[in-house]
Amino acid sequence: MNSFKGFVIKELYHIFRDRRTMLILFGMPVVQLILFGFAIRNEVNNAYIAVLDLSKDDVSEAIVNKLLSSGYFRLAEYIESEERIEAVFRRGKVKEVIIFEPQFAQRLRSEGTAHLRIVADAADPNMAKLLVSYTTAITNGYAQELGQRASIVVVPEVKLLYNPELKSVYMFVPGLVALILMLVSALMTSITITREKELGTMEILLVSPLRPFQIIAGKVLPYLLLSLINVLSVLALARFLFGVPFRGSFLLFMVESLLFILTALSLGIMISTVSKTQQAAMMISLGGLMLPTILLSGFVFPVENMPVPLQVISHIIPARWFVVIARGIMLKGTGLDYLWKETLVLAGMATLLLSISVRKFNERLQ
Amino acid sequence: MRTILFILQKEFLQIFRNRAMLPLIFVMPFVQLVILSNAATFDMKNVRLYVIDLDHSAESRRLVSEYTASGYFRTVGVSHSEKQGLESISNGAAHGFLQIPNGFGRDIATTGVAKVQLVIDAVDGYAAGLIQSYTADIISSYGEDIALEIGRFPDTSRQGIRVSSAYWYNPELDYRTFMVPGILVLLVTLIGFFLSGMNVVREKELGTIEQLNVTPIRKYQFIAGKLLPFLVIGLGELALGLTLGRVLYGTPILGSLLLVFGVATVYLVAVLGLGLLISTVTDTQQQAMFISWFFMVIFMLMSGLFTPIDSMPGWAQKLTLFNPIAYFIAIIRQVLLKGSGFADIQQPFWSLCAFASIMLTLAVFRYRKTTG
Amino acid sequence: MASEPVIVARNLTKRFGAFTAVDNISFEVMPGEIFGFLGANGAGKTTAMKMLSGLLSPTTGEARVAGYDVFTQAESIKSRIGYMSQRFSLYEDMTAWENIRFYGGIYGLRMDAIRDKAAQLLGRLGMEHVRDSRIGALPLGWKQKLAFSVALLHNPAIVFLDEPTGGVDPLTRRQFWELIYEAAASGVTIFITTHYMDEAEYCGRVSIMVDGRIEALDTPGGLKQAFDAQSMDEVFVRLARGAQYAE
Fold this sequence. Notes:
The complex is a heterotrimer. Chain A is α/β, with parallel strands linked by helices.
């Protein structure tokens, strides 16, 4: 047991001495969180529009002012003819062109209707949809102000649960935790173990009095520690810098995290048993673990909108279950009574993968 | 020049002998285009709605059917209890619930103004925003329809501003059309960042770089020898990706292919330079990979690939001026989807050129044959 | 000997932070000499060799190799020397021929010259049959002999060998030394580090490094006499005992 302790301390020392890696290990989650919290916005605002005003009267001017004061739009330029639209879009800045027909105000007053056309750059379809719907809503709102109250009004009272300000950081924090755990526990572990193999130092370890299990545990323990520290620092940052709430049980959260870490570590060990070079380990980890974790876990992109085959695949991705659990505990305050199913799946995965990886590692020794 | 040819020959030999490499080069474009373009979507087509209709009038039933007929919503449960509605949100069964109060039908008939309540799970803020905007559309067209049918307030319903809209470049609003060019950038970037830098650090770890450093090889020859193979592979990947995108999704290629590949070359030099720069300051592949991953994640998140740059706060938008990925994504989308020509993309193109020359100079400068 | 020395080191020092790896060493090596650098692990042998081969800048002192200054003309030195490090440094995923072609090309040899040289050296090593095998599959001894021959490919004036025979069996070591003698006989200066004391006996002159300093420098016979020892082993042990950081 003493030699085991020495080994773990040596490994820890090894990791902590590498300042650059440490900096990134702790810096990356922080930077990512800050980006998600401050810089990355899913919602549309400040989109550039161009206006083709063939009327140039008080109403068209008023509508443009309404649009610009909404915060959704910024005026890039006035254009003079429809032929210019193409050129404006091609330069890429302008996302929407608004066209007022000639005698806009006059028609509105005498005939009761006037025609406003919107041309949207739908290269980004979601953005285009939102811009068109905002423009329509603002124009209609203006028309109502002019004295034409819509005939029947149903007022939707919308209540936004859990995240009333629609901050994207709320949704990203649990996913970020999953991603960090994968990165540290699976990727780092697989590379360190493979590195020993590639540089030939694994054999030296294997002939030492340490048992194979102890070698693996010794390699893995420091990363487990790092993962936990990382999770805690992300949670603290999310809480105190962004005010992301933590509504559920902290203890439950840590237990679930531990389950997920075990799964990730086992995956890391498994990868290291099948790869000969660090490059291979890295590629398998990136392609087989990191990408699915980012894409198919529901971390950024909702799984339910994906084609069915991808939804099916997503079931075997541990992060998918963990993200549901983490969001439930953190943001909704749900407990085991709702999350038992996901927890069971995760526990099953952890047990299965852990036993496979230990078996695989032992096999390779014989 | 001759020396560079010898280095190139050696690099290509090693790349194509690396068994992990070939599948990577050929499988990656497939996987990314098939999985990423389908997975990376913010579309919301199947909003799960829980309905609490306390009114049970013709009007309330009609509102519910407007929701389901819109194609965006699907009912997952009906009851009279708000508590059950909340529960279906907290256990994830529903995205939200619609509660129609008692007297809804009567209010419409008498005053013309009625209320409904919509409670949305806003953990995913973007989805919540979309659900809100869908609701606004449905409810306003519902109001118009009912007004027409029952003929109330006929004198005012005729008047107004008629708004019509056209969606250019992607009239079917297919999200994949938008994503494929971005994914191509991702593909090229992965090659640039990871393979080149890792390659040099591997030589460091194995000790073969020392042998190179005692030869009279010039720094620029070394950098060129390490850069060119991956430039070729990167461009090959781009060609493969473009073909796949065209065949699988009918991705439009409206602009000049020559322009696309020209810009891609400059872009690749920039990221390969950055990858090599990273490799000169790291000693192990683990370190190099970590630093590369770090930069790539930040560049990717801030590139406009998934979220619009225009929506970012001012300081963040200024930061994207230093992000080569952002330039390349903007350019490739414009050229492929809108047919922009060189004149349209000049500005970002020159920025990329500046970035590439800076990275390359730094990489050559930082590479040390003699250490201090 | 009437000719000029090919390596001149005066008060050469290398410090890494507070640690002095090479401390004020001075010596000269004549053309065609086999010059041995002995010392325990960490005594500063490799650091000294890296400074002379232009891989590492000295902190202070001066040195000229093949007539070039190590501070200002490191790149010129590199075209006149061969180098073989303690880690095997040919490319394991390439064949013997591909390695030879690559290094020949880097040193600016013409293609037909490379082909001639390759045939010649593979013939001399008796390794024609593995010309097209990947190096990774060869036994260590073969690899080392091949690496040495590749280091001689461009007819350098000096070859630096950093513990070239580490981990190699006695028979192959013997063959390796035959190669070294052959090269020295053709006028190449050999600068070799080793911690095998029997190998020290093969050298023309030997310098023994302890804690970054040269504690003794003479022919093997001269050293044994001066220390009143039977073998180089004894000489070494006596010197090393005085070391500050003896292991």
